[in-house]
Automatic annotation (TrEMBL):
Name the record gives this protein: Amino acid transporter transmembrane domain-containing protein
Membrane topology value: Multi-pass membrane protein
PANTHER family: OS05G0424000 PROTEIN-RELATED
Organism (species): Vicia faba
InterPro entries reported for this sequence: AA_transpt_TM (IPR013057)
Length: 439
């Protein structure tokens, strides 16, 4: 369908001919705001939510965790709105984050932004494979706790399934019905984990909610948790997602963002708070490992988490796929032998490397912290505020500029501090666990 409602054979055609659209092998302006909202919501409520009780609430406690999650949601909505509103800056659809940065700052910023985004998405993809592998191992352990199927093997299986899915789904807009399937899986594991947590909490004696650790260790854990706060809400690829939405792209994107940060965050809050309430400071990094209940119920939740991770990974890998497909001129039918063999080779190779790193360093919480620190902070908050200020320099009052500078300085400090904390966590865990650890 064309953006104006009529038919068009060109998937990159926009309703406003005055707006230039860069060349891409993937579809542009084909999705409704609701489909885009579900892309965003699936990212927010991916199986990573099974870790927030342990990686956010335990280091921050009730006050820090609840206030932190709410404040992080507000500042994330604000920062994403800034990026969404300059999507058509200068009469051009900036369908990639690096394109927008390059237009505002120049070639060096283009390369730096692409590097930051690649790191962000690579680490998120690696995290999804670790998560899928952990869910698979948890399922196996429910039925046979004989330590025969180790985590690295589960991660390898997860990587293989992710590669199969990536080969079958050519681009982000093609997810279509899979978004609904992913949402169903998300509802299943969130509902089961929440209900089992609440049941355990009612039946358990009073829990200890004291923030663990002492001295420098406690400080670093707290700083690392702050990176997890921003990781929870942000994709680091908003222009790429906005590229798929129908015209008017800014108005529709704002609808999607409002949906994400209202209806979309309710499941995240439910599972995060109920999990921490039930188990306190002893909450596991993977919440389903803390819950007690019928084996088959927990198995359904774990399998749902595994399958949802496979679908969600495709969302965060799509900018890399788009770059590779466009660079190599992969257009036309997805089932064309040339295109199919290309996806098998290139996407399969990319995910094999992802899987290797995931099995090598399977520290899920540390990956979340480091991703938030070195890429989510800069991309979502520092760059968003500064790009918006540069783009609107002649239209902003002094107080507005001051507000943006405060955001830039604050999040720059947070990014540096969180990076140090995350690297320290990885260093500590690397000494505790060997490479390819079965944790």
């Amino acid at each position: 369908m064309g953006i104006g409602g009529g038919e068009t054979s060109d998937p990159n055609k926009v309703h406003d001919d005055s707006v230039e659209v860069p060349d891409t092998a993937h579809q542009i302006s084909s999705d409704s705001w609701l489909q885009v909202a579900f892309v965003l919501t699936n990212g927010v409520n991916s199986a990573f939510v099974l870790g927030y009780s342990g990686t956010v609430m335990v280091p921050l406690g009730w006050v820090g965790g609840v206030v932190g999650l709410i404040l992080a949601a507000l500042v994330s909505l604000y920062a994403n709105a800034l990026i969404a509103n300059i999507h058509e800056l200068g009469g051009t659809r900036h369908i990639r984050y690096r394109d927008l940065a390059g237009y505002v700052y120049g070639k060096k910023a283009y390369k730096l932004t692409w590097a930051l985004q690649y790191i962000n998405l690579f680490m998120i993809n690696t995290g999804f494979i670790i998560l899928a592998g952990s869910a698979l191992k948890a399922t196996y352990t429910l039925f046979r706790d004989d330590a025969q199927l180790k985590l690295p093997y589960c991660i390898a299986i997860a990587g293989f399934v992710c590669a199969l899915f990536a080969i079958c789904i050519p681009h982000l807009s093609a997810l279509g019905i899979w978004l609904a399937v992913s949402t169903v899986f998300g509802v299943i594991y969130i509902a089961i984990a929440s209900v089992l947590s609440i049941k355990d909490g009612i039946q358990s004696p009073p829990r200890d909610y004291t923030i663990p650790g002492e001295g420098a260790s406690k400080v670093f854990e707290t700083i690392g948790a702050s990176a997890n706060l921003v990781f929870a809400y942000n994709t680091g690829m908003l222009p790429e997602i906005q590229a798929t939405i129908k015209q008017p792209v800014i108005k529709n994107m704002m609808k999607s963002l409002y949906f994400q940060f209202t209806v979309g965050v309710i499941p995240l809050y439910l599972i995060t708070f109920s999990g921490y309430w039930a188990y306190g400071s002893s909450t596991e990094t993977y919440l389903l490992n803390s819950t007690k209940g019928p084996v088959w119920v927990k198995a359904v939740a774990n399998i749902s988490a595994f399958l949802q991770s496979v679908i969600a990974l495709h969302i965060f890998a799509s900018p890399m796929y788009e770059y590779l497909d466009t660079k190599n001129g992969i257009k036309g039918s997805a089932m064309n032998i040339k295109n199919l063999s290309y996806r098998i080779t290139v996407r399969g190779g990319y995910l094999v490397f992802n899987t290797f790193v995931a099995a090598l360093l399977p520290f899920l919480g540390d990956f979340m912290s480091l991703t938030g620190a070195i890429s989510t902070f800069p991309l979502t908050f520092i760059l968003a505020n500064h790009m918006y200020m540069v783009a609107k320099k002649n239209k902003l009052a002094i107080l507005q500029k001051l507000w943006h500078w405060i955001n830039i300085v604050f999040f720059s400090i947070m990014s540096i501090a969180a990076s140090v904390a995350a690297l320290r966590l990885i260093s500590v865990d690397s000494k505790t666990y060997h490479l390819f650890a079965d944790i």
